[in-house]
Specification:
299 residues; 2 domains; 10 helices; seven-stranded mixed β-sheet
């Protein structure tokens, strides 16, 4: 596992430990809502640190982690600049005529006058296929999809991860089927996976006192909104969570209402390119975590 993790990192792919023989991340061992700050990485960062920002290409960190236990290997697609197309196979009780993901993708490619380009290919433990492609350098950050391209076809990109070669899940090993550099994501696939354009946004007005405390809170809100709207692709969800923790502390201390913080940060997340449901969940988690450590503003 250590050798495999180092080999993935040498390609520039960011890896993190999975629970042995399992798909679930080994760290952190708690959700954002229950973060107490006792986890050393969370404490050092000053906020909850999920699996994606923990993913690394640092050989020293990788050696320290995989020398302790036979962890599986998770590969964070966003930091690795990868889009992985996950092609499933029908389960044993599949109905007659049900096709696998590879056939669905091949038909979709043919409809666009294309084929399936040769690229780094993995056979999953259950016999499915992972096709690794390079994320486009231009355009919006692509996110995870489930069934968007068709039945049995999912994708993993920013905010998603895959089980990497060398790992086992339920005793079944992930193996390389074609060991080559990932090809660029085909333009027709990138177009199908591009997020829908955002609807026009109306500004959210947060009513605050005009005294010194109000000025401080307005500045704090402005800083956190800017943190989110200027975050780089792949970092926006994390930036939104950090901002929500900060404003959640102020809301718990009575400096502004949780509803105002929710509204302004949710809009900031959507403006930055996150889906509304994703922004809502992230802000709720951050506000809840921040409420554990209230921060009062002096008048």
């Amino acid at each position: 596992m250590l050798a495999a993790a180092l080999a993935h990192a040498a390609r520039g792919w960011h890896v993190f430990p999975l629970r042995p023989d399992d798909k679930r991340p080994a760290f952190p061992d708690h959700p954002a809502d229950d973060c107490t700050g006792r986890d050393p990485r969370c404490r050092a960062a000053g906020h909850h640190l999920g699996w994606e920002p923990r993913a690394t290409t640092d050989p020293d960190r990788i050696r320290r982690a995989w020398s302790t236990r036979p962890y599986g290997i998770g590969l964070a697609c966003g930091p690795s600049r990868l889009v992985v197309v996950d092609l499933d196979r029908p389960k044993g009780d599949a109905g007659p005529g049900e096709r696998d993901g590879l056939a669905v993708l091949a038909d979709l490619a043919a409809q666009h006058g294309a084929g399936i380009d040769a690229t780094y290919t993995v056979t999953t433990g259950r016999g499915g296929t992972h096709l690794y492609y390079r994320h486009p350098d231009d355009g919006p950050a692509l996110r995870n999809t489930a069934g968007t391209l068709g039945p049995m076809v999912d994708t993993r990109a920013h905010g998603g991860y895959v089980v990497a070669v060398g790992s086992t899940v339920a005793g079944r090993r992930y193996t390389v089927d074609l060991n080559t550099d990932p090809a660029p994501l085909p333009a027709w696939l990138a177009a199908l996976l591009a997020p829908a354009p955002l609807p026009p946004q109306r500004p959210v007005v947060v009513e605050l006192p005009t005294d010194r405390a109000g000025a401080y809170v307005r500045a704090a809100v402005g800083r956190e909104v800017e943190r989110v709207t200027t975050a780089a692709p792949g970092e926006r969800n994390r930036a939104l969570y950090i901002a929500a923790v900060a404003l959640g502390q102020l809301a718990a201390g009575g400096a502004l209402t949780a509803d105002d913080a929710q509204s302004v940060l949710e809009q900031a997340g959507v403006t930055a390119g996150l889906r509304t449901a994703e922004a809502y969940r992230t802000v709720r988690s951050g506000l809840t975590a921040g409420a554990h450590r209230p921060r009062k503003v002096a008048a």
